[in-house]
Amino acid sequence: MKIAIVHDDLMRRGGAEQVALSMLKAFPEADFYTMCYDPESTYPEYKNYKIHTSLFQKIAKNASVMKKLFFPFGIWAMKALKVKGYDVVIISTTFCSKYVKVDQQSIVINYTYTPFRLAWNPTSYDQYNQSRGISRWIFDIVIKYLRYSDAKAAKRANYFVAMTPETSQRIRDAYQVTGEIAIIRPDVKCRNFYLSDKPKTYYLLVSRLEPYKRVDLCIEVFNKLGLNIIIVGTGTKAKELKAMANSNIEFRSGLSSAELADLYANCKAFIFPQHEDYGITPLEANASGRPVIAYEKGGVLSTMIPYVNDASKATAVFFSEQTVQSLSEAITKCEQLEFDPAFVRNHAEKFDESVFIDQLQSFVSKKCKNLSDEVESLAGINITT
User: What is the DSSP string of 257-268?
Assistant: First the structure.
């Protein structure tokens, strides 16, 4: 059975890029395609594989150029990219990998993290919300085109896979999917994290420094409480956020995997203030035996065990509103609780990469067998895959 994996782009170190790596481990003989690839900006493990890119690679040498020229050049390049000669094509996507050309007989499995945000949820972008007049008019024309193009490309999929029930419903709403949508939850690579015998008193936040990540809320709260926190990440709001922060707040970036694992293992707790589709960083904190203080929305509802009355059987403290008061109260509560690091780590192992690989391999095998059985029944011949 010949398999191809197609991922949107390899220009960052994000959760989706980690999932795509796990897909490669599930099918190590698969060919891998993406819109564009910057080896120094994504996970170094990708250097172990042959990466096929679109024509957009000649233009987009970094993430900034990629984002600015994605419409229309990136779209055109992905629509021109031929992924043919495969029995199965696994699409790992938020936005553009579903545009590629595939054979009619290929089984297409669409692992959709969430429907293309700019097309289906434009108000999540500051640029859209702040646009006025002709700028808004142009935005709306682009969004109309993106919705049409995105929905049309999505219809090529034979099967959809989602991360959570919430993202599954978004897929149904955007693409009018009426059939089964399987849930295979993204993994955490537990082997990369460890439990510390003597964790310290600082809190930790690991995130891109972008508006919707609500790092600003975290800074406001820690300015008020005076507790120590380390914020790891880069992004467009870095300068602004650093200017907000008091001396008890430390910023870091460019850390190695080992350095990041040390920060996870030794933190008091991990802060997760945003509404995220899934969120692998809370699971990374759990894999280090550390509890999470999380906004009670999105993916954490599927991955965390919230504290109710027994901290030894919990992995997180939830807060219900993205306000200074609500987050402050959750931190104060966490200060008074004793979590069980072994229990927290064992919970994370339920989301380990090995679990994801087994589930994905089983799903692909089952769908291929179902198709073979159908063809065999219709043709009256034996077919092996």
Answer: HHHHHHHHHH-S
What are the residue ranges spanned by the domains of the chain?
3-187+353-379, 191-350
Q: Look at the domain 3-187+353-379 and name its fold.
A: Rossmann fold (3.40.50)
- Phi, psi values for residue 272, rounded to 5°: -135, 85
Phi and psi, residue 45, nearest 5°: -60, -25
Mean pLDDT, range 370-375, rounded to an integer: 58
Strands 107-112 and 88-93: parallel
Asked if residue 237 lies in contact with residue 245, where contact means CB atoms within 8 angstroms, the answer is no
What is the structure's pLDDT at 125? 82
Helix (H, G, I), strand (E, B) or coil at 67: helix
Q: Which CATH class is domain 191-350?
A: alpha beta
Residue 131 has what DSSP assignment? -
- The pLDDT of 43-51, averaged and rounded, is 95
pTM of the complete model: 0.88
Burial class (CB in 10 A: 0-12, 13-18, 19+), 132: exposed
